[in-house]
Amino acid sequence: MNILLIDDHKLIVEGLKNSLIGKLSGSTISTITDFQKTDIMNTVKDYDLILLDINLNKIGTIDGLTLGKEILKKYSDKKICFLTGFDLPGYENEARKIGAKGFISKEVGISDLVRKIEAILEGQTVFSKNKVWMEDLTPKEEEILQLYCQGYKRKEIANKLEISIRTLANHLNSIYEKLDVSNYQEMVQKAIRLGYMLPKKD
Q: Mind listing the pLDDT tens digit for each residue in 58-86?
């Protein structure tokens, strides 16, 4: 099996590569730590499994989730597993949605990591069993949540969505119940903390 590690931390990548070589018999481990010197889309086609970090700020202009989505758009049969320090439900939910085969925290031990990799190579998926509550929200509720996270106020959101303040209030009550929060401040904090939404950029 050919396995490719894509991460922007060279020291971590080399250490992980050396650890996996001795434990994944019959596998070849390669690494990418610099996008500028690599034709990613041409390279990944030769690998059975791609272990991909989410935070790739040091080596590229896009995040790992976006890169994974682009890879799967071109090679729908590729096995992608996110190996990341951003162990948040929102990121894991997005990984599921784009078609990844797994989502593993960098906090796991090497033996556990090897077991999970072997499971993916055998055709299984590896995700946590935590409830992914964003799936409970309607598209309109997700849109409202995103606008609040971006810093818009109630009247602005109502105008933007062309709905009444009363209708917006009804949507908010539904979101509060699903997210188990009491107000919009708690709603925004929870969504950002769990990685479902991004905070407003100044």
A: 666 788 999 999 999 999 999 999 999 88
Domain with 61, as residue range(s), is 2-121
126 lies in a domain? no
Cα–Cα distance, 163 to 109 (Å, whole number): 50
CB within 8 Å of 24: residues ≥ 6 apart: 1, 3, 114, 117, 118
Final residue belonging to a domain, choices 91, 121, 151? 121
**Mode of pairing for the β-strands spanning 2-6 and 28-32:** parallel
CA angle 105, 88, 168 (to 5 degrees): 165
pTM for this structure?
0.69
Between the alpha carbon of residue 3 and those of residues 46, 72, 170, the distances in Å are 9, 16, 49
Q: What is the pLDDT of residues 5-44, one digit of tens each?
A: 999 888 888 899 988 988 887 889 999 887 766 788 889 9
